[in-house]
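Hey all, sorry for the wall of text incoming. These are the two entities for the joint prediction.
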Amino acid sequence: MYNTNQLGRFEQVVLPHLDAAYNLARWLTHNDHDAQDVVQESYLRALKFFSGLRSEDGRAWLLTIVRHTCYDWLRQNRRFEPLTGFDDELQGVESDEPGPEAMLLRTAEDELLRHALEELPVEFREVVILRELEGLSYKEIADIANLPLGTVMSRLARARQRLQQALTAHTQREAQV
Amino acid sequence: MTCQEIRELIHAYLDGEIDLVRSLEIERHLPDCQVCASVVQNLQTLRSAITRDSLYHRAPPDLRQRVQAVVRQSNRAESKPRFASLWFASGRWLGVGISAAAVAVLLLALIPAWLRSSADEPIAKEAISAHVRSLMADHLTDVASSDRHTVKPWFNGRLDFSPPVTDLTERGFPLIGGRLDYLDNRPVAALVYRRQQHFINLFIWPSAQPSSKAAVNPVTQQGFHLFRWTAIEMHFLAVSDLNERELKEFVGLIHDQLTPTATP
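and here's what came out:
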């Protein structure tokens, strides 16, 4: 299928992004076992289409495939519930509630943050993971998730707002105990 | 800028996604407005909390080894996905969710022997395999849309050519979407159309030949019909379990759309 050159290029361009692939799959499928399967399937698909890859940005290209594969998996397992009644237009998204207190968040347990992230709808979760954990630009996220730029920004804004609300609610509950 | 305008831009500002002019405007505003300043501070706190390393899932070492094994194997592989090699390389049963690919392998094995051994029509064999896989692995489309203005641009940047996308909804063959596939040792465009309950895969890829007539006699085997022809410097291959007459009608419609009657 490939000559040594092409295989070498695949190893240089796509293979190094295994951590990024696994991290995204792990956050979208919620568990290690399925994330590993999704990543393996993604690499097979990547191999299949590699000769058509024109850009050198192996990470964004691989993550696009991983995301597709995750969504296939979510649909197969009936775990995909598209956002309904969700307006992607950017409106004022700030709430007047105070956010979680800075000090509290700095010491917030991993478990609390992880839970808040896991609870986000998948369309919000993916943009947060790609932005905060992968450090991708709006443009790169728009390409990977096949969304308009404005939608990337509004989803990210809402996702962060939801996280703040969840964490605030938690700290308030803690305070009442 | 008003506080409202600032709030709308605050995420883009924190993400470094706005221009310098507006960025400076926001920075001038913050010292004078406690409310906006606290919004920014809370968001910054949240962001630094999420970006902590402990929330990043790194790939387990054994996954890395398995993926590398699969990639290495492909060097000795033929031009088809090696689901089977993944099995052996992975050393464990694939998860139920993704095992559709494995099921496809088993089912492909059930495709008649002549197809697997026929050397004169390797493309037909590949196309039928791709068609069957697309229906089974829950991967009929990468872009699901009946709008050709959505489907056609989707292929930009994913292929080194631009496949013609025709809308035949009014003629009873609605477009379902498109997909990348692999035929003839190269990535190809697969357009998916429907007739009642039957799906048609139309594979398109560049050709060195100018054009040929649409094949009047299809390849037919085990309930699948294939028409193959060349036009506008592209190969076209339509495959479906639809009856031959209606598939021929479909092929005629596609062919007519692509090649307007030449002036005598």
